[in-house]
Design a protein that fits this description.
Pfam families: cNMP_binding, HTH_Crp_2. With about 230 residues, the protein is an alpha+beta fold. It has eight helices and twelve strands. Strands 2, 4, 5, 6, 7, 8 and 9 form a seven-stranded mixed beta sheet that branches. It has a three-stranded antiparallel beta sheet with strand order 10-12-11. Strands 1-3 form a two-stranded antiparallel sheet. It is elongated and about 55 Å long.
Length: about 230
Amino acid sequence: MRYSIVRRIKMKKIMYPLSSTQFTQEIPGIDADLLAKSLVMTFKNGEFITKELTELRYLYFIMEGRAKVVTTQSNGKKLILQFLSTDDMIGDLTVIKAEEEIKDVIAMGETTCLAVPIQTIEMQLMTNNEFLRFLSQYIGIKLLLRMDHFKEQQTLEAKMRLAKLLLEITVDGEYHEKHTEIAEYLGVSYRHYMHTFKQLKEEGYIYKKENRYYIQTDSLEKLIQS
């Protein structure tokens, strides 16, 4: 079922025509009445969707775009925990009280989200068994994906893991991430990561232009399928 969204807020003075926005995910309890109380937010690349040490005001559904979940370690170092994409949720663990302190969630490229007020979620959806079942299944799938990530760290060579990740996180073919953070996410040393990155670059899967890195999407897809 499709519902047109009729409310928007502007982030960094970006404006979009109302007619361009439709929420197409089929989620129990998300009806026209609830959407009328919600907002559509569009974040620019690098903009915080949620931020550590702040209160979560909305449950976000990513309508278009990508984001990364980042935490700050005790030594101040940033650590990427997960990458999110279209149809993912932000704030699901907070809604069910499993997480007290929210993480930084940062837009990767232009990212548009449906933002449902937490108060509305608590009043209208937390007694909806179908919504709770949907939420449980979503969290379960996320857990299985995390298990797959750790399994690949032990069974798949770094070159293939990096190739797969590049396809998942590049924005319009451009690679923005910090080498140190991606090395940690892949579970390899910085030296090993740079060796692997250089290897992909020498083989033509990555190229540099005006101090920016780009990927050859078709070639990387063939590499993974080989």
